[in-house]
């Protein structure tokens, strides 16, 4: 789900919790806590590109090439990577496998995250069918809807359940994340329920500001707003 700078464009509602929650005073945790949201977004993009390089058999890269792949300057790449303790060697650059592992450790890849999806309409269907989440360590534990006609249907390997089962599933499967793909007017109510059930972070696709306690880790995804920003950029360049 990551295009150039997509993550950076996502609106964080108050999102440092997720980045700082497991800092635990370690060096790694301290570094994570210091990373800005745009820097985390860029690291995720470097991570994606490094895995593409690994898949094509490349063993080394440098800040210029990596920057070109994600559309940022070599200086920004060097700063981002040195902030997580990865220093390239002059004339040699970065070892692709080591750098991917380093970024993965900082981003929490390798940790398996369980997510639930609420709202299996057009968008929810597409998300359930998308295989890219698993590659990054995210598995979908369950999907819920309020439309009885959808109960029991399997979409992308996940069976759609009634929203009535939500609390029971949250208590037993203990997922950490919830993806909301419900109509705007339902979103805050659903968010309140998943948070009460132990969910730690919400990826919200509904174009609304969720009414949730301050400090809740939320990422809002709004493609229409991004298109608007793109149009603005084109008009004002
Ligand atoms: N962020 C984006 O870029 C983006 C893109 C497309 C859609 N959206 C938003 O995502 C949401 C879903 O869009 P869609 O096109 O899939 O809509 P849709 O109408 O096709 O699907 C909504 C689904 O949610 C279910 N639902 C309704 N209330 C529910 C509840 N309380 N609990 C669980 N399920 C419930 C409905 O039965 C339906 O299956 C909307 O809020 C839409 O505006 C966002």
Automatic annotation (TrEMBL):
<dbReference type="InterPro" id="IPR036390">
    <property type="entry name" value="WH_DNA-bd_sf"/>
</dbReference>
<comment type="function">
    <text>Modulates transcription in response to changes in cellular NADH/NAD(+) redox state.</text>
</comment>
<dbReference type="GO" id="GO:0005737">
    <property type="term" value="C:cytoplasm"/>
</dbReference>
<dbReference type="Pfam" id="PF02629">
    <property type="entry name" value="CoA_binding"/>
</dbReference>
<feature type="domain" description="CoA-binding">
    <location>
        <begin position="108"/>
        <end position="209"/>
    </location>
</feature>
<dbReference type="InterPro" id="IPR036388">
    <property type="entry name" value="WH-like_DNA-bd_sf"/>
</dbReference>
<keyword id="KW-0805">Transcription regulation</keyword>
<keyword id="KW-0238">DNA-binding</keyword>
<protein>
    <recommendedName>
        <fullName>Redox-sensing transcriptional repressor Rex</fullName>
    </recommendedName>
</protein>
<dbReference type="Pfam" id="PF06971">
    <property type="entry name" value="Put_DNA-bind_N"/>
</dbReference>
<dbReference type="InterPro" id="IPR036291">
    <property type="entry name" value="NAD(P)-bd_dom_sf"/>
</dbReference>
<keyword id="KW-0520">NAD</keyword>
<feature type="binding site">
    <location>
        <begin position="119"/>
        <end position="124"/>
    </location>
    <ligand>
        <name>NAD(+)</name>
    </ligand>
</feature>
<dbReference type="GO" id="GO:0045892">
    <property type="term" value="P:negative regulation of DNA-templated transcription"/>
</dbReference>
<dbReference type="GO" id="GO:0051775">
    <property type="term" value="P:response to redox state"/>
</dbReference>
<dbReference type="InterPro" id="IPR003781">
    <property type="entry name" value="CoA-bd"/>
</dbReference>
<keyword id="KW-0678">Repressor</keyword>
<dbReference type="GO" id="GO:0003700">
    <property type="term" value="F:DNA-binding transcription factor activity"/>
</dbReference>
<dbReference type="InterPro" id="IPR022876">
    <property type="entry name" value="Tscrpt_rep_Rex"/>
</dbReference>
<feature type="DNA-binding region" description="H-T-H motif">
    <location>
        <begin position="45"/>
        <end position="84"/>
    </location>
</feature>
<keyword id="KW-0963">Cytoplasm</keyword>
<dbReference type="GO" id="GO:0003677">
    <property type="term" value="F:DNA binding"/>
</dbReference>
<keyword id="KW-0804">Transcription</keyword>
<dbReference type="InterPro" id="IPR009718">
    <property type="entry name" value="Rex_DNA-bd_C_dom"/>
</dbReference>
<comment type="similarity">
    <text>Belongs to the transcriptional regulatory Rex family.</text>
</comment>
<comment type="subunit">
    <text>Homodimer.</text>
</comment>
């Amino acid at each position: 789900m990551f295009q150039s700078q997509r993550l950076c464009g996502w609106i964080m509602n108050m999102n440092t919790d997720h980045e700082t929650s497991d800092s635990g005073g370690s060096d790694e945790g301290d570094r994570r806590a210091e990373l800005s949201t745009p820097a985390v977004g860029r690291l995720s993009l470097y991570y994606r590109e490094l895995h593409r390089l690994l898949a094509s058999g490349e063993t080394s890269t440098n800040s210029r090439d990596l920057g070109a792949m994600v559309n940022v300057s070599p200086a920004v790449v060097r700063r981002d990577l040195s902030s997580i303790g990865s220093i390239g060697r002059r004339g040699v650059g970065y070892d692709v496998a080591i750098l991917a592992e380093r970024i993965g450790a900082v981003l929490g890849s390798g940790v398996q995250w369980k997510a639930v999806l609420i709202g299996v309409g057009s968008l929810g269907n597409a998300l359930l069918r998308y295989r890219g989440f698993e590659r990054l360590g995210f598995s979908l534990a369950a999907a819920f809807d309020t439309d009885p006609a959808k109960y029991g249907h399997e979409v992308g390997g996940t069976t759609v359940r009634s929203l009535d089962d939500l609390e029971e599933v949250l208590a037993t499967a203990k997922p950490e994340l919830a993806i909301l793909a419900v109509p705007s007017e339902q979103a805050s109510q659903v968010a309140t329920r998943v948070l009460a059930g132990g969910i730690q972070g919400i990826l919200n696709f509904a174009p609304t500001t969720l009414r949730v306690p301050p400090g809740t880790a939320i990422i809002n995804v709004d493609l229409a707003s991004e298109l608007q920003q793109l149009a603005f950029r084109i008009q004002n360049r």
